[in-house]
Amino acid sequence: MDKLDKILQQNDIEMETPKKKKRILLKLGSNTLTRETDQISRGKIEDIARQIAALKDEYEFVLISSGAVAVAKQFVNLEKSGENIDVKQALASIGQPHLMRIFQESFRELGLLTSQCLLSPNDFGREDSRQNIINTVNVLVENDYIPIVNENDTSSTDAIQFGDNDNLAAQTAALLDVDLFIIATNTHGVYKKGSISAETPETIRKVNDLKELEREVMSETKSAHGTGGMQSKVSAAAITQKAKIETWIVNGLDDNFILNAINDEVHFTKIHH
Ligand SMILES: Nc1ncnc2c1ncn2[C@@H]1O[C@H](COP(=O)(O)OP(=O)(O)O)[C@@H](O)[C@H]1O
Ligand SMILES: N[C@@H](CCC(=O)OP(=O)(O)O)C(=O)O
């Protein structure tokens, strides 16, 4: 075999075995999706789509998206109103298809395909459901669909009661054995408690010991649309840490927040496993 043949053969082998993509599970809180307003921000969803499109050769994404209640509140005035759980469940049911429509339209503009998966915490305790989730997501991802997961708020109330979409996201990350779990919220990660009201609060950049983070959490403090506060994010990180997955808590309000975190150009909290 001459030199050229060898090179061609080598190239063939390289083409036959494309580099395995890293899997990222990205959790989007209501605050990120509304840009802290009363409206779901199409611009923010477009920002996320642009970043996923830029990263799609290296990374595959699974999204966990809140925002169903927030989107419904924009245009629905239910007869029975207030903060009752059943009303929130009904709002989530009304808002979810609208939320998915915005994702679908914005992602399609960039040639990205989306799908919806509604899960409930009980699904993680049943072996058949666990396997079904893995199988479905694998087929979707292999066919270049981006699964967009939310809690099934009709059959469970953990997310709307306790902000447990963070928990659902962590359980999903562990089940799907992702390479990285990113939680997007409205702060540059977890701040040192004493610096929270400062003009530039100090981010805890890297941490192994979650107790260290817990000490900094102000459990009574959460944002306008948020339900779990920072405590539910730290608890979620405990699940992924146990599953040997690195967790990043980043500021989803910034444009390009995923790219900037990957390129280490912004402050955020990295929780090692
Ligand atoms: N140490 C801390 N560092 C940063 N944010 C904190 C801290 N302790 C409590 N918080 C609160 O947690 C909020 C983020 O959680 P949450 O309101 O549930 O948002 P999301 O909708 O993104 O899930 C922050 O806006 C802040 O009010
Ligand atoms: N399933 C609910 C999720 C509520 C929730 O966990 O909100 P967040 O604390 O903003 O992640 C919804 O879509 O509104």
Distance N terminus to C terminus?
Answer: 48 Å
Q: What's the total count of β strands? A: 8
Number of helices: 11
The shape is globular
Structural class: alpha/beta
Low-confidence stretches: none
Quote the beta fraction: 15-25%
Bound molecules: adenosine-5'-diphosphate, the ligand N[C@@H](CCC(=O)OP(=O)(O)O)C(=O)O
Biggest sheet overview: 8 strands, mixed
Helix content: 40-55%
The topology string of helices and strands comes to HEHHEHHEHEHHEEHHEHE
Biggest β-sheet: strands ordered side by side in the sheet: 3-4-2-1-5-7-8-6
The pLDDT mean sits at 91
The whole-angstrom Rg is 20 Å
Summarize the structure.
The chain has eleven helices and eight strands.
Molecular structure report:
The protein is of the alpha/beta class. Helices cover 44% and strands 16% of the residues. It has eleven helices and eight strands. It has helices at residues 3-16, 30-34, 42-55, 68-73, 85-108, 127-142, 158-162, 165-175, 210-214, 229-242, 257-262; strands at residues 22-28, 59-65, 113-119, 145-151, 180-185, 206-207, 246-251, 269-271. It has an eight-stranded mixed β-sheet, sandwiched between helices. Helix 6 links the parallel strand 3 and strand 4 (145-151). Helix 3 crosses helix 5 and helix 8 (165-175) packs parallel to helix 10. The protein is globular and about 80 Å long. Bound molecules: adenosine-5'-diphosphate (ADP) and ligand VHF.
